[in-house]
From TrEMBL:
Keywords: Membrane, Transmembrane, Transmembrane helix. It comes from Aliiroseovarius zhejiangensis. This is Holin. The chain crosses the membrane at residues 44-63, 75-93. The keyword Transmembrane helix applies.
Length: 111
C-alpha cells in the first residue's frame, strides 16, 4: 500500500471498530464489581484488537483468494474483517486440538 492508501485503510478500520464498539449492546449492570468491570473491559479491548488484526493480516489474503476482488477493494474488505474479526478469532480459538490434527492429516493425505 502507498502512504495515502495506508492512511485511508487505517482510518476506515479505526472508524469501523469504533462504531462497532458504540453499537455493542453489553450494558454494565449497576452492581458490577471491579473484577467484572475489568473482565468486560478486557473483552471489549480484545474484540477491538481482533478486528484490527483480522483487517490487517486478512485483507490481502482474501483479495488474493477471491478473484473478483482487486486492490481497489482493500478498504471494503478491511471494514468487513474489522466488523467480523472478533467472531472469526473466537471461532478459531474454539477449535479443538483433535479437529486441527484431523484437518492437517486430511490436507497431507494421511488417514
Amino acid at each position: 500500500m502507498q502512504y495515502a492508501e495506508d492512511v485511508k485503510f487505517w482510518v476506515a478500520v479505526a472508524l469501523t471498530t469504533f462504531i462497532k464498539w458504540l453499537f455493542t449492546d453489553e450494558v454494565a449492570p449497576e452492581d458490577e464489581t471491579p473484577i467484572e468491570r475489568r473482565i468486560r473491559l478486557r473483552r471489549a479491548l480484545g474484540g477491538i484488537l481482533a478486528g484490527f488484526l483480522a483487517a490487517y493480516y486478512g485483507h490481502e489474503w482474501i483479495i488474493g483468494k477471491i478473484e473478483s476482488l482487486t486492490e481497489d477493494d482493500t478498504v471494503i474488505v478491511a471494514i468487513v474483517l474489522a466488523i467480523t474479526g472478533e467472531h472469526i478469532m473466537r471461532a478459531l480459538m474454539s477449535i479443538s486440538a483433535e479437529t486441527i490434527r484431523d484437518f492437517i492429516v486430511r490436507k497431507l493425505g494421511g488417514k
